[in-house]
Amino acid sequence: MTVFAVYEILNIAEAIFGKFLPVKIPGLSLLVGMVVIIVVGWMSSFWLSQRLIAFGEWLLSTIPVVKFIYNSVKQLSTAVFEADRLLNQAVLVPYPHPGVKALGFIMSDLPEHMSCLLDEEHVCVFVPMSVNLTNGFNIIVPKRDIISLDVTSESALQYVLTAGAVMPRQQEDTKS
């Protein structure tokens, strides 16, 4: 099966690039095709892709409803991809009501304009839904109600993704 797949890939590459090459060497057209793709990708990462992305963002910012959705998704993706501590600190919080605890992740402290409205210090905690980390609840919890967990982020995420079938492992001491 693998030999057949490689043979077909070589044939397809030969059909696409082989007619432009002056020399007929098996596999040369595949190599040339890969080099062309890499060079075009490298070149486009500098100028062409920047221009296309800028044009696409401008275009999306002119459509009223799409502008709101796009900006929201862009801010979320920027926060996710640029945050070095996102979903790092696993905690237990009282959710959905007092007496019950749910596993969550500390996201950030509240900004001043929100914290001044509350009597005590609060933090924002994301409580993900089981099996699907893209859904969950962003809740504001008093710091006194948060129980910090000594578990790795990976095991806490695994706990959520497996709907509790795999319990979080204690974080190993790295001071040795």
Q: Descriptors for this entry?
A:
176 residues; alpha+beta; 3 domains; 5-stranded antiparallel sheet; 6 helices; 5 strands; 20% strand
Spans of at least 5 consecutive residues with low confidence: none
Number of strands: 5
Question: What characterizes the major β-sheet?
Answer: 5 strands, antiparallel
Q: What percentage of amino acids are in beta strands? A: 15-25%
3D structure, described in words:
The chain is an alpha+beta fold and 176 residues long. The chain has 3 domains: 43 residues, no CATH class; 35 residues, no CATH class; 72 residues, no CATH class. It is 45% helix and 20% strand. It has 6 helices and 5 strands; from the N terminus they run H-H-H-H-E-E-H-E-E-E-H. Strands 4-3-2-1-5 form a 5-stranded antiparallel β-sheet, with helices on one face. It starts with a helix and ends in a 15-residue tail after the last helix. The mean pLDDT is 78.
